[in-house]
Amino acid sequence: MIYQICAGVATFSFLLLVIYIIRTLITMNRTLRSASSSLEEATSSLQTIQKTIQDLQPQVQAVLTETEKALHGANELVADVQHKAAQTQEVFDNIQNLGKSIDRVSHTIVESVQSHRGTIGNAVSYMGLGLELVRKWKNRNQS
Predict the structure, then answer these.
(1) How far is CA 52 from CA 47, 48, 135, in A?
(2) Are 113 and 120 in contact (CB under 8 A)?
(3) How many CB atoms lie within 10 A of CB 120?
(4) CA distance 111 to 117
(5) Is 123 a domain residue?
(6) pLDDT in the model for residue 9
(7) What is the per-residue pLDDT for 91?
(8) Can you say whether the dihedral through the CA atoms of 128, 134, 137, 143 is positive or negative?
(9) pTM (2 d.p.)
(10) Is residue 132 part of a domain?
(11) Number of structural domains found in the chain
């Protein structure tokens, strides 16, 4: 009788073990299906991203080419402006030297006029007197 009870308990235990394993396998199957579905969605998304990248690659290359051309043109323009600025610097230097020379001549004339103020005043007076005499002489000759 003890053997029969032990056999019954062993059978019952084995049945519980089988039920537990079946439930575990069902749960694992659901998990694997969900993971498989997620992987398929991720693969689809990655393929879409890859296609988008492939479609954009020629456009990006074209933009890079245009940018490179623009930078090259800008560098040439900067070099040209620097060259022309250097050339115009000589002109501005010459204008500055001319201005300094005119200042020196003007200063010299002012000093000369100040030192000969009396003489120049007398000369202007004599010129005015001479012009007045010439006008009177013309008036007498015409009458």
Answers:
(1) 9, 6, 102
(2) yes
(3) 13
(4) 10
(5) no
(6) 92
(7) 82
(8) negative
(9) 0.41
(10) no
(11) 1
